[in-house]
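User: These chains co-purify. Model them together.
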Amino acid sequence: MARDPFSSSLLADVDERGKKELLAASREVTLTDGQLAFSAGESGDQVFVCTEGTIALYVPSKKDGKERHVRDALPGDAFGEEAILPFAARQTLARSRGKSAAVAMPAHLVRRALSRAGAEEHEARIRRSVERALCSDVISASAIFADLSETERGKVVDASSVRMLEKNEYLYREGDPADELFLVASGTLTQTVDDVGRPRVLGYVSRGDAVGDSEASGKRPRQSSVLATGPSRVIVVPAKVVQWSAGKTAHLTRLPQLLPTAHLFRDRHRFEAAGSMLVIDGDSCLRCGQCSSACASVHDDGVSRLYRGGDKFEVPSLGATLLVPTSCQHCKNPACMPPCPTGAIGRNDALEVVIRAELCTGCGACEKACPWDNISMAPRTKDAPAPAGLAGADLAVKCDLCEGRAHGPACVVACPVTAIARVEPARVLPELGGGKDRAALPAAPRIPTLAIAATLAASMGATLVHPPFRASGVVALVALLTCVLYMLQKRLLFRYVGKDSVLAPSRGYLVHAFTGALTPGLLLAHSHGHVRANPGGIALTLALVAGASGLLAFALGRVLPRAMTRAEASSTGDDRGPEEWRALGVALLSALSGKSELTKAIFERVLGPYDRRLAGPMSFALSGRTQRQERTRLTTSIDALLEGRGRDKQAEVAEVAAVVVQRRAHRAKTTLARVLAGVVVLHVLAVAASLGLIVAHVVEVLR
Amino acid sequence: MSAQATRSAARSGDVWRQRALLSALVVTTALSAGGAVAALGSTGARSVGPLALPHQRAKVACASCHTTSDGPATCVGCHDPGQHVSTRKAHRTLMEKGVLRCATCHPAHGEAYGVSFAGDGHAKVFHADAVSEIETGPSPPKGTIVPLVRTERCAGCHNGKSPADPIARCLDASGFSRCWDEHETPLSPRGATGVCKAQHGETRYVAWEGAGRAMKADLPKASARGGYEGTVLPVSLASVLAGALAYVLVSRKGRRRVAAAAKTAAFAAPVKRLPVVNPVTCLGCYACVDACPFDVLEIKQYVAVVARPKDCTGVILCEPACPNGSIVIHEGEAQEGALRIDEHGESLDARGLFVAGDLTGLPLIKNAIAQGARVIERIRERKKELAREADVDVVIVGAGPAGLSAALSAKDAKLTVRLYEQGDLAASIRAFPRDKLVFDAPLTMPVEGPLEFQSAKKEELVRAWERIVRKHGLNVQTRTRVLSIVKDGDAFRVTARQARADAPEGAEEDHVVRARAVVLATGKYGSPRPFEAEIAPDAAPHVHRFLSDARSFEGKRVIVVGLGDSAMEAAVALAKQPDTKVTLVHRGEDFARGRKRNVDEVRHLSTRGLLDLRLNTFVRKVEPGLVHLVRVGAHTADIVEVDAVLVLIGGEPAWALAEGAGLRRHENFSAPRTSEDEHLVTEDSRGIA
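Assistant: Joint model of the two components:
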């Protein structure tokens, strides 16, 4: 007999509305003997209430790994309630004893309900115990306090406290008085020093690292600033305690020195948080947009959950450049989840972040909460479930990993060059402790260019024979239709073929390349070399144009993506180009405003002409230089021109030069993107016109 | 709601590009197929060229000539090889070898021409796909047929241009050989006509001439190549262009921006309107909090509460943002201290007197711009009802966002306008700290009128406005203070005094003008709040009421008075200048109000010793180079050496001027409070931005 979950003392004060909301968003879990509801150390986002059977809670010992029994949760008892603290890790593991059942409730909803019911003491109590456990964990693991006895360490724990930091919040700043040492419990922080008005990154600290230690023992103020790159928690140990503990131990406490690491990622936190991140290999992405398009076509509302524009990251260890498009990255600690007032956002058993349409009110809180704009609001389709009375409300949509579709994420399947994949960065990037395996990242398939060229040559050889008209016509038509099928396959596959495709578009691309190389020869052979101004003849001419433009697109697709990736600082979708260009214009004006006469003169003589040079963007794109290299080149040439004059104005000039280079890069990128897109348009138009005329040709031949 | 959805749906141009490609494919294929098939239907032609008409009429099937699938066509089924074969020896030899065929000279497709004479002066000309009848004059006997062979057909063996080639004599410019196969080489060059006649006899000659006339009369009109070049090529080109157009149209659809939202109320509601949140249904989702540009709402305990009801302007953006209808708007009594103006910004007590901008109680630059434009629109509508005799249509007081917008709109509406400004153009915006970003929230409010407004840095905004003013040729009378506005009959008599820049201090010039309408756009800080310190006369030039550019204080010692956002922002900006020593003086005990960012920054600079923060302190006296600072409750002054004093304690609206003109407030108006706390409220730069 299942117990009412609200008989639990934790939830006793929850009001009717809270109960309703909690019930709507919670799910029932049945556990077999020995099955775990959760284990210690994992980040929890659910509070459980036992409804049947017994669930035993254990604390695993740090030393020998043995489990110490804490208590049993019987029907009506809550467990895992530490999850109501944001970003708290499980302190215990919960194992079913015999068969049992529990209700799992979204922790943030429980927090809301409790808070409304005025039950802050619950939270305070849980907070105290969770924070103490956390302090104890981190302090025991730290090298600074390694030599203390258990009781001495207990004193350190007593004196310490936990501090939550939001993204971009300073832990401390250069020059602040230093009277604390910090141990990072979760998250990543950036340590910077002020370098003439701009922050220079010294390195990153994350779980287990200590910061502020160099000053905490002396009387110096802070020598650097520490900024949270994402929601983080640190254990605060007062300086006095540190000094006291240093006196207790005979050994010299040595801390691992923070090495000045290279600036690998602008947004390291993002990579660490991601559970499944969509990444595009910048060197092979054709910028065709099949990924977005496929996404839009698998969803009933026709709204793509994927926008191709996003950030660009270098992965030096693997020699790859990754473009991270705007698409849900299924965070391990989703920032969108706590703000959702109805618990519509949750994580399923595979730890994927899901939005439940039947609970989503369309309030947009998650859209604003996502730091990377990966959630958008879309009109709710008629069939989509909705909360009572909100049938017309918008629906928050984001990547659902094409849940329930056998082919997996449509964007990944749709990519003609397999340049896109879903990965867990922490596992595949050596910079984050992943294995050094380039194959884990997406990369273009090996394209047998030689074989394709051979096919093309062979098909041209076929023009020497004069095959029978009808048979050769049928063969050529089949080849041409196979080529065209590729486009329809890409467009229609996901919309109308719900199951796994016989031919993934990446294979389709190869088949297309081969048939494309074959078809012109077959058509020419069919014509016996006669090209007349009749439907057949014009169709043949157009088919040859299509073949040539296809060949050009193929060749450009092998060369231009690399150039584009090098030129661009971040990958903006083509449709945001005008916006970006306007912004760069404003940036140039403000970079120049209020600057010295020298800077303006340099702009007049060097940077302005550089900015206006018509061939500049293309020469930059084809030079293979990155923006940084181009900037250095430009400033070096200016320095040579100045011959040592105006040293104090170098920063000003560099600022303007940076904008001018950005403008050139923008133009280079857009030009290349237009070339890539334009060749495809020409190709499609030629094929289409040819196809139409072939219809006429067939009609007249059969008549 | 739908605007949001449109934004995200329009976000991905990729989706539209794929759709555009598919539409281009469909359009082009359909048009080229349809067009070419239709062309076939109209010409009745075949792919290899139209069949000669007699063949068409005889319903000759492909297989009757093309007996093998790829062998040469054979004509022997119908045509007698004995009769029709060429008599020329060379031709015969070639035919026996199989190199020359009937179709070598007379292809059955595309160009089967010939002239068939009826014997009565008429002939039929056979074109590729048609027959026309013409008069030929003298003609050979009935049944005579002159085949027309394209000269290119002979090019395999003959060179028509070489005089040595026998065929050269028989060709003319028509491009056709009208020769008969039994002709022989002319004997001597005695003039073409004579030679032909002599060689081939009268009949042949007449037929030759008749065929020549027939061709001249008719051939140019007929489509030379059987209608294909005439139709199919243009059809296919047109289909390609149509496909390209389809591509452009569809892909552009994805780029279309969200249309401007409907007009919102441009003036604060005269009655108090307040959102009321139902705490039972409120989700605590922040939708309303984010929608309100005036920070009226706040989330407490996961429920929205009306935290600053005083700031509510009654524009109501929160209600539509609420996802589940938890917000209702209650209309209450008349706004406390609200101006007695109608929904067009016109005073209820002094008709013809209009108000725009911050003075109306509705903050934000964007609103000010919209109000300026609305007010002028109303004046233009009401021009006939306003005073007949006046010097100008409208006098505008204040050249801030509202005043400029009004003046530009007035110029557009062809009203005569005079614009007075006591300081500089857009002085309130100039007073922002350097590089301050001027936000353009709320996004849902459209900007009306010619004055542009985008999110920009303050310097860019001021520059842009200066450009617009220059472009419109607007005359802004700066440094001109309006002394009084008096109702004079139907019109207003406006007295203004201009400080002359080219003359010594004190030289001033008074303007008096009669205006049909007056727009008060003096803003919230029309008169600076009085600074109660004693200022020595020769110290006055060192006391500033706003900071236009922190860089001008580089290396100076500056005292900033006040602790509102503008004072804090100024102090921070100054402290970041090299060698600038900043002292921030405030009478209160602690930070009473202000943005967290500013407070944090001031605290941080203060702990680092980059800024000297003196609370509980006020300025008693300013002397040249010296300032007397006194701690609250103390008697002795701390004398500090300074180069400049920045007094950033805000200002007050120019009430005296407005009331003199006849503007009144609602009855429950209470006099503006002057407590320290209140000056921080009015000083909040949110009020300006």
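Residues 650-702 of chain A form the longest helix (53 residues).
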